[in-house]
Specification:
The protein has 299 residues and is an all-alpha fold. It has 11 helices and 2 strands. The chain has a two-stranded antiparallel sheet. A hairpin with a 5-residue loop joins strand 1 (204-205) and strand 2. The protein binds heme C (2 copies). One heme C is lined by residues 97-98, 100-102, 112-114, 116, 119, 123-124, 127-128, 133-135, 141-142, 157, 229, 231-232.
């Protein structure tokens, strides 16, 4: 919005400059060499023409100025019209696919689904874009699966449910991730996330058949939205616990984990030296046993 304002402003000053240069050139043109009265008449005639032209341009500049003030509100009303349209689409989708479990007024349905009042666009975006919602059957835990809805429909659902409050869909730029503090992110991850998702984001079991999933597939916006909305057993990380900047650091760290390859061969879940030793021990003993049996068979 600031942009359009600025460019309009430039245009306006440009027009003003145009006015002054026009009058200047007109003035020099209207200075005739002779002192004849007819020439003088013509001169005043020309001068009034110049004045009229200047007045016209001045009026245009004023209209232009008013337009520059009118434009942002126009853009705003367009955006809100767009928003209303999206909410309508979202409501249509909701009534078709979500209403049976979340209720006609988003109040929730007993033994089927929780209330969605105030969960926010971020929660809807997270649940729908990771394919968790719409849930297909009652299960201990929804899992990530291919999303049922495309981006536009997901945003429409988020706009419809998000109108009742709650966190907005977060934005994460690649630039911000690039400039994040990875070391700080790693520290915060180990403090806040690793107890459930393991040190390397591989995930882990929780109580009563629930689990924290692997973070391998989560996009930056998924990670941000998960921290904002705390799906299922995951806590919400409020700005008091992790500031926006710290959340970006954590996201950058998870991205780095996702991008890390294992140059040493199979990573065995990156769980550390004990399981690695176990694998070598079991494999080695089996190999020796086979050798022994083979040698014994020969003799
Ligand atoms: C078969 C029932 C069912 C259907 C259909 C369903 N949901 Fe859900 N939904 C649930 C249950 C159960 C939970 C809570 C379980 C969980 O969080 O894993 C839930 C949780 C959610 C949450 C998280 C709420 C929170 O507190 O963070 C959102 C958002 C959501 N659903 C949106 C939707 C949308 C949007 C649709 C339609 C596209 C939908 N659901 C369809 C059963 C359903
Ligand atoms: C108390 C355990 C717990 C803690 C602590 C926790 N999570 Fe989670 N997390 C979960 C559970 C459980 C789910 C699955 C929720 C679901 O399926 O609805 C989850 C899901 C996620 C997902 C979605 C993964 C996907 O691919 O769909 C992301 C991303 C995530 N967590 C990131 C984090 C980050 C980052 C932190 C630390 C700031 C964190 N979690 C801390 C339990 C936890």
């Amino acid at each position: 919005m600031a942009d359009t304002h600025d460019s309009n402003h430039d245009k306006q000053t440009g027009d003003r400059q145009g006015v002054s240069t026009m009058t200047d050139t007109a003035d020099t043109q209207s200075a005739p060499p002779s002192a004849a009265s007819s020439a003088k008449k013509r001169r005043t005639g020309r001068k009034s023409k110049v004045r009229r032209a200047a007045a016209l341009l001045g009026a245009l500049a004023v209209v232009g100025g008013m337009y520059s003030y009118a434009t942002p509100s126009n853009a705003e009303s367009n955006a809100s019209a767009n928003q209303t349209e999206m909410m309508k689409t979202g409501q249509g989708l909701y009534d078709k696919t979500c209403i049976t479990c979340h209720g006609a007024n988003l109040e929730g349905v007993k033994d089927r689904g929780p209330s969605l009042l105030g969960v926010g666009a971020a929660a809807v975006y997270f649940q729908v874009s990771t394919g968790r919602m719409p849930m297909t059957r009652q299960e201990a835990q929804t899992v990530r699966k291919p999303a049922k809805f495309g981006r536009d429909d997901t945003l429409a659902l988020a706009a419809f449910i998000g109108q009742y409050g709650g966190p907005e869909i977060p934005e994460v730029s690649n630039e911000a991730i690039k400039n994040a503090n990875l070391a700080e992110g790693g520290e915060l991850f180990r403090l806040n996330c690793s107890s459930c998702h393991s040190f390397v984001g591989a995930g882990g079991a929780l109580s009563s058949g629930k689990f924290a999933p692997s973070l391998k597939q989560a996009s930056p916006v998924d990670i941000y939205a998960a921290m904002l909305t705390g799906p299922q057993n995951m806590p919400v990380f409020s700005p008091n616990q992790l500031t926006d900047e710290q959340k970006i650091d954590v996201i950058a760290y998870v991205k780095a984990l996702q991008d890390t390859t294992d140059p040493g061969g199979a990573n065995i879940g990156r769980t550390g030296p004990v399981p690695e030793g176990l694998v070598i021990w079991l494999g080695g003993i089996s190999f020796l046993l086979i050798c022994t049996v083979w040698i014994a068979g020969k003799s």
